[in-house]
Amino acid sequence: MPGISRRKLFGLGAAGVAAAGAGTLAVASLPEEAAPARTGSASDPVPFYGEHQAGIVTPAQDRLHFVAFDVTTKDRAELVDLLQEWTSAAARMTQGQDAGTFGAVGGVPEAPPDDTGEALGLPASGLTLTIGFGPSLFDGRFGLADRKPAALAELPKFPGEALLPEISGGDLCVQACAHDPQVAVHAIRNLARIGFGKVSVRYSQLGFGRTSSTSRAQATPRNLMGFKDGTANLKLEDTDMLRDHLWVAEEDGAAWMAGGSYLVTRKIRMHIETWDRTSLTEQEAIFGRTKGEGAAHGMAKEFDEPDFAKKGPDGQPLIADIAHVKLAHPSSHGGARLLRRGYNFVDGSDGLGRLDAGLFFIAYQRDPHRQFVPVQLALARQDVLNEYIKHVSSGLFAIPPGVRDAGDYWGRTLFS
Q1: Are residues 253 and 183 in the same domain?
Q2: 192 shares its domain with 269
Q3: What's the pTM?
């Protein structure tokens, strides 16, 4: 972190990041504590049709399989056909059915099955499938260049990031969330199977242990640093705030996106071995919250709003100006807020005796250049957590509105 060490930060009084977690963004805190409950049963299906795509404000499920695709066909009609096939399969799988009409065993024995079969006998498990379109899809191959929204302009380069091109970007993305990892993997596998010859997998990411709560009925989860994550996240119950900060409106400049949103993904590698050798006092100072309760410095409860004017016995602010909570707080960025639904990941080891682990950051918003970008720039320049994390992949996607009925399909408003 240029010009500032965490030791100097502690010398300023106390430090830390409130809310979010490694490399994520804080938003306004909730008025009361969420109950440790899950909405509905973990095996229940989530409705597929609606004004907005499921998997955004849906109460965050336990597991993730995220995939980015490169489109290999050059034929616009083939791409539209694929999106229609995918929509039909997604509508079935989210309701606990096979991906195709004849399923895994009901077709012609001499032909490949309509479904790969590994989810036979499993319930829907809250599966949601959410599709997005990357900036590269608007490069002219499919006559979409003049329909690219201004909000889909490429993200700037942030200080300190070390992005790997092979696990960044993508023409299309699909986010599969479920309470059963096999159900999520099955869904992505079958979409990739259906897309053979038209798309190819660019990269995919498995996630576990959601790091955000998207409903007040959910308890706040913890990230791999052991701290509560997503305390101040936007919730599905915040209707007015979702209208202002999450859903795209027609007046935003791309009418086909009305009812949609924009997705930013960041794979954030944590140097957890270094973190694990850091004292509890220092960890809590860096996060600005207690590790147990999750209360901000100077506060008693997890959901108490941080008080940046509050001072300690030494007369210094309990939360320093360069602490994460101050850098990321909406009051520092014109009220910028996000809806986050990230996941922990462990992708084995790096071959040097260290776990390849961290946070797969997922955030939805109305305009990433007015919401994600200014906050991440501040964090990248000054956040104390930069000593313990590294951003290694990035993605930006336009998330179209929901599928209204069985005659509709993913992306119809863009291609019609």
Answers
A1: no
A2: no
A3: 0.90
Do 313 and 347 lie in one domain? The reply is yes
When mean pLDDT is compared across 36-45, 73-82, 266-275, 329-338, the lowest value belongs to 36-45
Domain count, the chain: 2
Same domain, 251 and 104: no
Task: Tell me, yes or no, whether 89 and 125 share the same domain.
Answer: yes
pLDDT in tens, 313-371: 999 888 778 777 777 778 888 888 999 999 999 999 998 999 999 999 999 999 999 99
Residue pair 147/256 in contact (Cβ under 8 Å)? The answer is yes
Going by C-beta distance under 8 Å and a sequence separation of 6 or more, which residues neighbour residue 130?
Answer: 53, 54, 55, 56, 174, 175, 177, 399
Length of the chain, please? 416
With a CB cutoff of 8 Å and minimum separation 6, the contacts of 329 are 18, 26, 306, 308
Helix (H, G, I), strand (E, B) or coil at 196: strand
How far apart are the C-alpha atoms of 308 and 328, rounded to whole Å? 12
On whether both 268 and 256 belong to a single domain, the answer is yes
